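In this supplementary section we document a worked example of the pipeline. Step one takes a protein sequence of length 82 as its only input; no multiple sequence alignment statistics are reported here. Step two produces a three-dimensional model, which step three serialises into structure tokens for compact storage. The input and output of this example are shown verbatim.
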Amino acid sequence: MDKKMTFEASIAELSEIIKTLEKGDAPLDNALTLFERGVALSKTCASLLDGAEQKVAVLLKNQDGALEERPFSPPQEGSVNE
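The serialised model returned by step three reads:
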């Protein structure tokens, strides 16, 4: 993983790679190199998103009315928000 790249920079580079590959005029060796870089960037983005998801916390009031921090968990389908 390229630890120095931000999520936004990774997405921007990945977007440029996709545009280049979609044109279809890159030589095969170059296209393969771009594809490999795109896969690496995709993994970097997934890792960064996983890390961000683990850091997200939601403050909710408990039964006593006090705020408490809870790990973020996406709502389940069909559930009602508190």
